[in-house]
Every structure is written in structure tokens, then in C-alpha cells.
Amino acid sequence: MKAAAALRLLRPHQWVKNGFVLVGLLFGHAGNDPQRVTAALAAFAAFCLLSSAVYVMNDLRDREEDRRHPAKRGRPLASGALGAAEAVFLMLACAGGGLWLAFAHSGAPWIYLAYLGLNIGYSFGLKHVVILDVFLIAAGFMLRLLAGTLGIGIAPSHWLLLCGLMVTLFLGFAKRHAELSTLAGAGAGTPGEHRPVLDHYTLPLLDKMITVAAAGTLVSYSLYTVAEDTVALHGTADLIYTVPFVVYGLFRYLFLLHRRGGGGDPAQELLRDPHLAGALAGWLAVTLWLLRG
């Protein structure tokens, strides 16, 4: 029982988000370089451990609030399935393991220290600052991209960073929209009682922000596929044919957000929705085929 609770506390299903670390291998044509592949896999493992340490830290800090939340009260610390001392041990073990991997395999270990510092600041106050809270979530993903590029000796593309920023802002504002909708529908007090920053958001405002971020994602990725430097780097002008998968994925996510009560957890949506999983698999398959061709 304790082992199962500890595993749930680490949230391994969220590790799919650390796939951002591997994007550099794909678009940097480094998949045939064993040294960089090893470094990228080590970066992925390091972020899995560090992100789990961050989840434990957040749950430790928020366990009293989580007990009043209609969905979060079943978490291991909020429900009492796991004690605080055990959680602290897990957090330190994961953080130590993640940093060891970072310093042993990365050419830019500062990225991992920045990730931890960012999340400590987020957990201890910055998450209450409207709009900045979502930008900090996006910054965590941008650091993953840098770990999989700069950290393994690949120069990050400006297009890659721009697309990454827009899609993570889209997911961040969608998360806030889902949280606000869930709490409003549950009748569990005001949203601010569970997450104070939600008092500063409204659903119409978040819809506008989501629309801007979704449009930015689509436009930036589409322009990337036809840019001259992209064609020169990859030796193909056909990446434009991957755009429909991106469009479908964005629209499907919006559908889940507005009609199925989803959108709060991108990792869970990807794992349980066959349409999203299919869009990602199709995009990846066509991209790999074009880049290798």
C-alpha cells in the first residue's frame, strides 16, 4: 500500500512531458550519434526524477488545501496514505538522483538548477501572480528543450524555441481554464480558496488567451515548416504535410477542454484520448519519415 502511494506521489504518468527533452535529437539530426543519444536519455531521466521531486514538494506544501479540493483530496499526502517524513525522503532522493545525472551527463547543468529554482519560486509564492504563473510553467518546458539541445551540444533553433513557448502557454492557460471550470461546477467554495490566482482569471479571459496561444502555435509551426533555413537544414520542403496533425491536435484539445471537462492535465489527456495520441503518433511518424528521407 505504501509503495503504491509513493508511486502515485511521484506521478510517473507526468513523465511523458519530459519528451520535450528529446525534440533536439529529432530536429538536430543527432539520432545516429550514440554519445548525444546517451546524453539525451540521461537528460530525460534526470528531468523525470527532478519533476517528481517538484511534485512531491508541491503536494507537501499544498496538502491542507488539497484536502478541501473535490479532486485533489485523494492524493497520497492529502488522504493520509503517505506521511510527510516519507514524502521528504522521496523528494530528496529524486532531487539528488536527478542532479547527479545532470552533472554527470549534461554540458549545461545550470539548466537543471534553474529548473529547481524556478519551481521553488513557483511553489512558494510566484504561482499566485496572475499570468506570470502560466509563463513560469511554460519556462519549465523551455528549460527541458534547452537541456535536450544546449545540454547535449546541439544549437537550439529559434523556431523550435518559439513553437515550444506558444504550445506550452496554450497548455498552461488551458489548465487554468479546466481548474476554474471544475471548481465552479463542483460547488466547493470559491476557486480562490483552492488556488488563489484563480480569483484573477475568468473563463472569457482565459478563452482569449488560449485562442492567442493556439493561433501562435499554429502560425509559428507552419512558418517553420516552410522557412528557407528549415528546408536547407532538413533537405525537404515537405514538413508542411505535418501541419494537419498539429491542427487536429489543437482542435481536439479544445474540444476536450470545452465539451468533455478535460484539458487540466495534458499527460492524462494524451494517455487516455486516442485522438490526441493518434495525432501525436501521426505527426511523429510523418516527421521521422520526412527527416530520414
Give your account of this protein's structure.
- It is a single chain.
- The protein starts with a helix and ends with a helix.
- It is built from 14 helices and no strands.
- It is 72% helix and 0% strand.
- It is mainly alpha-helical and 293 residues long.
- It has two domains: 1-156, Orthogonal Bundle (Tetracycline Repressor, domain 2), CATH 1.10.357.140; 157-293.
- Helix 8 (158-186) packs antiparallel against helix 10, helix 10 (203-226) packs antiparallel against helix 12 (243-259) and helix 12 (243-259) packs antiparallel against helix 14.
SSE topology sketch:
Blueprint: H1 2-10, H2 23-27, H3 34-66, H4 76-79, H5 84-105, H6 110-123, H7 132-147, H8 158-186, H9 191-194, H10 203-226, H11 228-234, H12 243-259, H13 266-272, H14 274-292
Helix pairs in contact: 3-5, 3-6, 6-7, 7-8, 8-10, 10-12, 12-14, 13-14
Q: Features of this protein?
A:
mainly alpha, Tetracycline Repressor, domain 2, globular, 2 domains, 0% strand, 293 residues, 14 helices
Short synopsis of the structure:
The chain is mostly helical. The chain is 72% helix and 0% strand. The termini are far apart.
